Batch of 2 targets.
Target 1
Amino acid sequence: MKQTWLILGASSAMARAFARNVASEGADVFLAGRDMDDLERMATDCKLRGADTAEALRFDCRKPAGFGTIYERLALQDGALNVAVFVGSMPEQSEIDADPSLIDATVMDSFTGPARFLQGFAPMMEARGSGTVVGVGSVAGDRGRIGNYVYGAAKAGFATYLAGLRNRLTRAGGHVVTVKPGFVDTAMTWGLPGLFLVASPDDVARDILKAVKKQRNTIYTPFFWRYIMLIITHIPEMIFKKMSV
Ligand SMILES: NC(=O)c1ccc[n+]([C@@H]2O[C@H](COP(=O)([O-])OP(=O)(O)OC[C@H]3O[C@@H](n4cnc5c(N)ncnc54)[C@H](OP(=O)(O)O)[C@@H]3O)[C@@H](O)[C@H]2O)c1
């Protein structure tokens, strides 16, 4: 069956690597985001790699009035509609502590904006009885901690949303993969202190595609983050609340 991938937040280094991978498998690719020049260049690259169709689409998850144009364009595609969400923003926690209004934008970028988009897209997938949603969350959503608890809360909300969407789409022949990366070498983490075991965007993209093919429900990437988070989530709260992990 013809595969179409809509990639939201396509300028992310992880998204870029994922787009290249699906394009080289012959999928049609729609690159959605805010930097149209960058997305046009990526579309050209995806065509060279094997996509019959590769187009740039304007997408700002804070502006839901623009979602309809994307739904309408994707409705013209034959076959399975798939969507991968890489959108997210992570202001420093200290900035949010100083200006609590930043909470709204953080939650909108990392949870409610993508969820609102998916809520409108899901009926199109149900109607076709196929398709996969990839939602990129974060290990930060597994436990609130002093260094990024607003971003973590947004990612936790998104993970719960994705679990419910999986429950819904499964009964219509669709699937949802929740992706929880650890630290990845991208624009988001550039210059941040204290990172360890940093993965490359290419490795993460490869893990995601593998998870899509195997219809995995939730993956940690790289895989060892599952065990790191198992330990972190089992530290008793009376100890954890005094730690700075
Ligand atoms: N890097 C890590 O260590 C790490 C770890 C765990 C999870 N993640 C998650 O992985 C995903 C990709 O992040 P990244 O590390 O590749 O960082 P990134 O380059 O900052 O990617 C974030 C993407 O989200 C887009 N975006 C942000 N706000 C948006 C909005 N209002 N509307 C539309 N697009 C918006 C950005 O678009 P612009 O280019 O237009 O700003 C960018 O394409 C994010 O969801 C992030 O939370 C990252």
Target 2
Amino acid sequence: MNDLADVDVLIAGGGVAGSAAAAALAQLGLTIQIIEPGPAHGRRLAGELIHPPGVDGLGELGLLDVIREEGVPVDGFAIFRESQRGAPDAEVLPYSDRSDAKVSGLVVEHRFLKERLLEKVGTLPGVSIRTNARVTAMETQNGDTFTAVVREDTGDTRVRAKLLIAADGPLSQVRKLIGMSHATQRYSAMMGLEVNDENLPHTGFGNIFLSPAGVSYAYAIGRGRARVMFEILRDADAKESIRTQLKNFPEDFRRDIEAVLAAGKPLAAPNFCIVPEASTRGNVALIGDARGCCHPLTASGITAAVKDALILRDALRETGMDIPAALKRYARLGNRLQLTRRTLAEELREAFLAQTPEAQLLSECIFSYWRSSPTGRRRSMALLSTLDSSVLSLATQYLTVVLHAIRLIPQWRRQRSIADWNRGVFRLLAKSLGFQRTVIGQWIRERYAFPE
Ligand SMILES: Cc1cc2nc3c(=O)[nH]c(=O)nc-3n(C[C@H](O)[C@H](O)[C@H](O)COP(=O)(O)OP(=O)(O)OC[C@H]3O[C@@H](n4cnc5c(N)ncnc54)[C@H](O)[C@@H]3O)c2cc1C
């Protein structure tokens, strides 16, 4: 084994999170080495929609110009649910109510996004990239300071760094190597394909189609193309599931998709909910999907990764490069964002997919809230896009949504049974109270366990 010259920061993984971290820490004048196994190891089907806070963050890191040309602006979500009246209808959730406001997200094809960002950070002062290399071991004497072992064709090298960043994705090897456990749930997979964007229903929006069979997405990716993704639940038959989900799509667009499906095989990727026991250990910080990921319903993974990078940079700056103090701060601030984003994704997923009376009622309440309140639509989009990452905002909105159950009594009386409404409302209230208790408990713990 060779010993290499020390670096300030070693980053395992050259995906969006690794590149964002490198650009952020290069702004502090640190020497940084990125270890990346190469294109064959990355994911082919992954995040492409970046919310405005992620776009702003990439701008702040000097990484926006290299992807803007490849990108397509996006103004929020258009959310379709199972058609109630024959024709599919959608609630449009814009990032901003003001048409003159320049608040927009960006969609960039994943392969371009990853390539362009990594290429750009490789040109920054102090940053070097070792491709066809991977971290294969993390050595430690005392559990406080880890040293990475990097494997290349030429052999293994031990790299000492003051700070090690695990940006190696949801199934992070580094996380495992430092003995950090995590809870995993793998509930579905995603199948993705490209179609002509001519009949895409809400151009300029991320179209989300809800169905008990799974959540599907469609958005423009540029050059006249659109990405379509279908969620395939565990143990479901993929063809049957796609057929069911397609029923919610407008007819012309559905035909375009069916033609592509008949001609080829879609790309696939697993969907995980991963919650590691912590986000730092010793001199190691987890970032991006390695730090935790959830259902892609909110399309917030990239934005969260960019925010993580900025939080880490600011924590190092504010603590005068005191790494233990900075990592403590990073863990506290970043965990808030993770908690809100994960809770929101998981609650929405359940509301839209589960077939229980409380889930159906919650889903109706959410749509009633969106239909009746432009402020509600904007506030929901702020949570979905991580512009608002306060768990207390989430708790308040949850309660507001649940109160919409009262408005729905006449409709439920007409369309279903009032007994179902009763059952749904009791379970929903119990669930909501449990949710409020968890959120408030978490808030109090954070306030007192990590005082400012
Ligand atoms: C189907 C799907 C759709 C999604 N849609 C969206 C969306 O629209 N918007 C959004 O924001 N998010 C979305 N996400 C989530 C988003 O893709 C991720 O949050 C984001 O890509 C995370 O990037 P990352 O850099 O943390 O991880 P990754 O992109 O997984 O990168 C990890 C990198 O680490 C490298 N690596 C692996 N092992 C090692 C090792 N031992 N040593 C060194 N390097 C290693 C890999 O080669 C890879 O390059 C989606 C996810 C999926 C699966």
